[in-house]
C-alpha cells in the first residue's frame, strides 16, 4: 500500500471510527417495559389484544418486569403437544428419510456438530445431547404452538411490537447446558428485543436435568467476552468464563437459583438476559421433552438470518409471524397434521 493510501485509510478511521463493542443494551432501544418510566397500567388500558391473553395481564407484566420471566399454566392443549411430539419421534425413528438439521453436543462424538437427520446413526439421534433445529419449518403444528395466542399476545405486549419467531429447538433429554443468557448466542438486530419460550411436552421430573434460572438476573451487569456482549470467533473469553461471571454476580446480589418443575402444557416465557441453564441428568432413563422457541420483534428482526438481503416469506398465526426457511423449501410444512388444530 502506498503512503498516500495509508494516510487516506488512517484519515477515514479518524473521521469514521469503528463502533465500540456493546457492553450493555442501549437504553434507548429497550422494550418499553424494561425502561424505568414504564407504566404498566397505562399500557394495559390501550393494549388492543388483552382479551387474547387468558391470564391476568397486569399481574404477568409486573412479574415479568421484576423477575424476567412468567409461567403460563396449561397454555397448550395436550392433544396439540402429542401430535407434535409424534412428528418429532417420526424423525428420530425414520431419520434416513429426513434432511432436518440436528445439533449433536455428545462429548465423545467426533462428527460435525450440526448434521442432517439422515446422516446420523440411530444410537446418536435417539440419545442424549441432541437438539432438533428449527423443526417448526417442517411442521404446521410446531408453527401453531410457537405462535399460540397466549404466547404471541403476551410477547407483543412485552415488545410493544409485532412478534417474530426466530428459531426453535426440540429436546428429548435435558440439555445440561451451563448457566448463560440467550442474547450472547441468539442475536437479533436489536439484542434487547429477544425473548424465549420453554414449552413442556411432558411433566418435568427433578432427576431429568430440569431447567434452572435466577429470578431478577435480567437486570444484572452484562458479561464482556473481550469484544462485547456477544460470543463469537473473536471473543477472548469463553462460555465457561460467562457461566462463572453470571453465577458469581447472582450470588453477590442474593438472587436465588430456582428449578423449573412444570407440567405438560405449561409454558415458561423469559427475558433475553435471564440467567438460566440445564441441570445434571441424575436418572438417564428419564426424558425431558421440551420445545424451546426464540422470538424478536418486527422492527428488530426483519429478515431470515440465512438470507438477510431478501424479503422473507411469512407464515402468520395469531397476529405474529415466522419466516419460511429460504433454502429448505421442500421441507416447509412437510408435516401437515397441524392444519386441523
UniProtKB/TrEMBL annotation:
Molecular function via GO: 2-oxoglutarate-dependent dioxygenase activity; iron ion binding
Cofactor field: Fe(2+)
Alphabetized UniProt keyword annotations: Dioxygenase, Oxidoreductase
Organism domain of life: Bacteria
One Pfam family hit: PhyH
Transmembrane segments: none
Keyword check for Transmembrane: no
Name by which UniProt lists this protein: Phytanoyl-CoA dioxygenase
Amino acid at each position: 500500500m502506498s503512503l498516500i493510501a495509508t494516510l487516506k485509510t488512517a484519515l477515514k478511521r479518524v473521521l469514521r471510527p469503528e463502533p465500540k463493542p456493546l457492553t450493555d443494551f442501549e437504553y434507548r432501544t429497550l422494550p418499553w417495559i424494561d425502561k424505568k418510566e414504564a407504566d404498566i397500567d397505562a399500557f394495559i388500558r390501550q393494549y388492543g389484544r388483552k382479551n387474547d391473553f387468558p391470564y391476568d395481564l397486569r399481574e404477568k407484566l409486573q412479574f415479568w418486569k421484576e423477575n424476567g420471566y412468567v409461567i403460563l399454566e396449561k397454555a397448550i392443549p395436550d392433544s396439540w403437544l402429542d401430535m407434535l411430539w409424534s412428528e418429532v419421534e417420526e424423525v428420530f425413528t425414520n431419520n434416513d428419510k429426513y434432511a432436518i438439521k440436528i445439533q449433536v453436543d455428545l462429548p465423545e462424538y467426533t462428527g460435525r456438530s450440526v448434521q442432517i437427520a439422515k446422516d446420523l446413526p440411530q444410537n446418536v439421534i435417539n440419545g442424549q445431547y441432541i437438539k432438533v433445529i428449527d423443526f417448526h419449518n417442517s411442521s404446521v403444528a410446531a408453527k401453531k404452538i410457537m405462535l399460540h395466542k397466549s404466547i404471541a399476545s403476551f410477547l407483543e405486549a412485552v415488545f410493544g411490537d409485532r412478534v417474530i419467531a426466530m428459531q426453535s429447538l426440540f429436546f428429548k433429554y435435558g440439555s445440561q447446558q451451563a448457566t448463560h443468557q440467550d442474547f450472547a448466542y441468539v442475536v437479533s438486530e436489536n439484542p434487547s428485543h429477544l425473548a424465549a419460550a420453554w414449552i413442556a411436552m411432558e411433566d418435568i421430573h427433578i432427576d431429568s436435568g430440569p431447567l434452572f434460572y435466577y429470578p431478577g438476573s435480567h437486570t444484572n451487569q452484562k458479561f464482556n467476552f473481550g469484544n462485547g456482549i456477544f460470543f463469537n470467533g473473536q471473543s477472548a473469553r469463553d462460555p465457561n468464563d460467562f457461566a462463572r461471571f453470571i453465577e458469581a454476580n447472582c450470588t453477590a446480589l442474593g438472587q436465588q437459583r430456582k428449578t423449573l418443575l412444570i407440567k405438560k402444557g405449561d409454558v415458561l416465557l423469559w427475558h433475553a438476559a435471564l440467567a438460566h441453564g440445564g441441570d445434571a441428568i441424575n436418572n438417564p432413563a428419564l426424558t425431558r421433552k421440551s420445545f424451546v422457541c426464540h422470538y424478536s420483534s418486527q422492527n428488530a428482526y426483519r429478515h431470515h438470518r440465512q438470507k438477510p438481503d431478501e424479503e422473507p416469506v411469512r407464515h402468520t398465526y395469531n397476529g405474529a409471524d415466522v419466516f419460511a426457511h429460504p433454502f429448505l423449501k421442500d421441507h416447509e410444512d412437510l408435516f401437515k397434521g397441524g392444519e386441523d388444530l
